[in-house]
Amino acid sequence: MQHVDQQLAVFAKGQKNNKGKAITAVMYTRVSTKEQADNNQSLFTQAKHIKQFAMNNDLQIIGEFGGTYESAKSDERVQFKQMIAFVKRHKVDAIVVYSMDRFSRSGPNAIYISEQLRKIGTEIISVTQPVDASTAAGELQQGIYFMFSQYENQQRRLKSMAGTREKLLQGHWVTKPPLGYKKITEGGQKKIVITKEGRLLAAAFRRKIKYNYEFTEISKWLSTRGLKVSHKRLSELCRNVFYCGFMAHQALNGEIVKGNHEGLITRNEFLKLNGMLQIRPAKKPKSKMLDHLPLKRHMHCSKCSKPMTGYFVRPKKLYYYKCNTKGCKVNRSAKVLNRNWEQTLSNLQIDAKYVTPIQEQLKRKLESLKEDSGDGLKQYRSNKTKVERKIEMLEERFVIGEITKDLFDKYAAKYREELVAILEEIDKCGISLSNPDQVIKQATDLMSKLQKTWQLSKSTERSKLLKAVYPSGIWLDPENNSYRTFGLNPAVRCILDITGKSVEKEKRNSEDKLTYSALVARSRIELPTSGL
Questions:
Q1: Which residues contact 357 (CB under 8 A, 6 or more apart)?
Q2: Which residues pair with 185 in a beta bridge?
Q3: Burial tier of 460 (Cβ tally within 10 Å: 0-12, 13-18, 19+)
Q4: How far apart are CA 391 and CA 414, in angstroms?
Q5: Spatial contact of 69 and 80, defined as CB atoms under 8 Å apart
Q6: Residues 186, 187, 189, 195: what is their CA dihedral angle, to the nearest 10 degrees?
Q7: pTM of the entire structure?
Q8: pLDDT confidence tier of residue 385, bands split at 50, 70 and 90
Q9: What is the CATH code for 181-278?
Q10: CATH architecture of 17-156
Q11: Are 331 and 323 in contact (CB under 8 A)?
């Protein structure tokens, strides 16, 4: 027998054999509808078979989840999410379900969830569809079960929609009728009739057509007669063709059909009413707002990392950028930030007479990067996964109350900062060009007239330009209204490195410099002073 050196055992690799160890598990049961849950027969059957299976296979059930109706089309289910959090927190060995479609019918997302659970050592076990997911064949088979469950869901939906469409084409409304109508049974036949509220709505529509009153006035008029409808709701109701005797529904695939119900107003009245709504003054176009706030959504708040929006102060006739995160309240003048941004672009710009030699050096630099960046990129991606996992675990601990909000904010900010730095390094490594000559020419031409291009561009072109230079956006430093820039386009970074320009605000430590020097050749070209 081979003896194990206990001191060296900590350096062992591979998954440890857990034979003889008690296997912990949770059980999950569900049905798709409230009627099935009220009947409880299906839930009882599922629970009975799962507990019997656990007893026969020496599984220790330490938690029970589900026991109610939850649609499996989406994995945003209350009991389901609680179970996943419990499994991660307690490192549970297995989730036991009656069949794979009880776990999820979301197809690819179910496969993704099962893979994530497998990484932390949790297996999904089906009582009626036993597979060994620890093997390649078993993992494939489990994936097929998940995909087939999604296919069944889609088939049910198609059949249901086909039946709905047939009824609608015959003039029968299949769901709850809108305000002003109700369903009744008369002579054994179901029909939709107008209610007292419906007659009031009809009078309101005709007041709008005849006198063109504002919806706020019509809302008050209805309220004095016992029908409370907001002015916004009235505007929505006016656009519903149901009120002129027709029907519109998703199952009709863009068609309008005549209904068997009586309309509150005629077809001509409906068209006249909606014609009046269309000639209302148009709202201020968004493009004009974006002309004054070109950095909107691309600029992030450095305090909370959220994209910044903007607004207009009419008395001052000034635009402002704003962070909408509660408690953050970063608020800065758009005029100042836009001016500072143009200065940032000016600092990035290169002299047009140096474009040709820069292009030649850039070609050589790209070839060097392709050869040297492989191992570094792999390590950075590994580090990125680790930090993302830390953030995920931190959020879970905060949600279940293990840590305070102060501790959460402190460490969340630290991990996000680490993640941003890693993403920056990944961007440096990730150079893969299918047509390098064309890309180099476009990049150097753009860099030689960067500020002018920005000034002459419209809002949509400015957005594209910003994404081209800084794909990950920019971060506002509210202390001095300057920008912290991460994720610079790799081609732009190489150009700046060749010319000797530096746009990094933060200092690198010696380790960062050594890593960077291994990825990017630090050679410079001797730029002539004239003659180009």
A1: 525, 527, 528, 532
A2: 190
A3: exposed
A4: 10
A5: no
A6: -10
A7: 0.35
A8: confident
A9: 3.90.1750.20
A10: 3-Layer(aba) Sandwich (3.40)
A11: yes
How many angstroms separate the Cα of 100 from the Cα of each of 28, 67, 80, 275, 493? 11, 16, 14, 53, 49
CA–CA gap between residue 143 and residue 154 (Å, rounded): 17
User: What are the backbone angles phi and psi of residue 341, rounded to the nearest 5°?
Assistant: -65, -40
Query: 99: closest CA among 81, 120, 64, 126?
Result: 126
* Region of 180 on the Ramachandran plot (φ > 0 left; ψ -120 to 50 alpha; else beta): left
Q: Is 181-278 in the same CATH topology as 17-156?
A: no
Any idea what DSSP says for residue 31? E
Would you state the structure tokens that stand for residue 192, as one six-digit string?
């939709």
66 vs 49: CA distance, rounded Å: 15
The three-state secondary structure class of 308 is coil
Residue ranges of domains in the chain: 17-156, 181-278, 286-333, 348-519
| Beta strands per DSSP E along 346-434 | none
Residue type, 427: D
Contact (Cβ atoms closer than 8 angstroms) between residue 32 and residue 71 = yes
- Give the position of tokens 């027969």: 41
- Tell me the two tokens of residue 215: 């919806």
The structure tokens listed for 290 are 């974006």
Q: Give the residues across from 128 on adjacent strands.
A: none
Tell me the C-alpha distance between 459 and 239, whole Å: 32
- Tokens 């594209």 map to which residue? 464
State pLDDT tens for residues 432-444. Answer: 555 667 767 777 7
Structure confidence at residue 519 (pLDDT)? 32
* pLDDT tens digits, 191-217: 999 999 999 999 999 989 888 888 899
- Look at residue 518 and give its three-state secondary structure: helix
- As a residue count, the chain comes to 532
76 or 520: which leads in pLDDT:
76
- For 48, other C-beta atoms within 10 Å of its C-beta total 12
Residue 325: exposed, middle, or buried by beta-carbon count in 10 A (0-12, 13-18, 19+)? middle
Map residue 364 onto helix, strand or coil.
Answer: helix
H-run or E-run covering 182: strand 181-186
How far apart, in whole angstroms, are the C-alpha atoms of residue 149 and residue 140? 14
**335 pairs with which residues across the strands?**
none
> What span, in angstroms and rounded, lies between the C-alpha atoms of 310 and 70?
40
CA pair distance 148, 138, nearest whole angstrom: 15
Alpha helices in 94-195 (DSSP H): 100-103, 108-119, 136-169
Q: Return the SS3 of 299.
A: strand
Radius of gyration from C-alpha coordinates of the chain? 32
HEC-encoded secondary structure of 76-133: CCHHHHHHHHHHHHHCCCEEEECCHHHHCCCCHHHHHHHHHHHHCCCEEEECCCCCCC
Q: What is the DSSP letter of 235?
A: H
Q: Which residues contact 473 (CB under 8 A, 6 or more apart)?
A: 298, 299, 300, 307, 466, 487
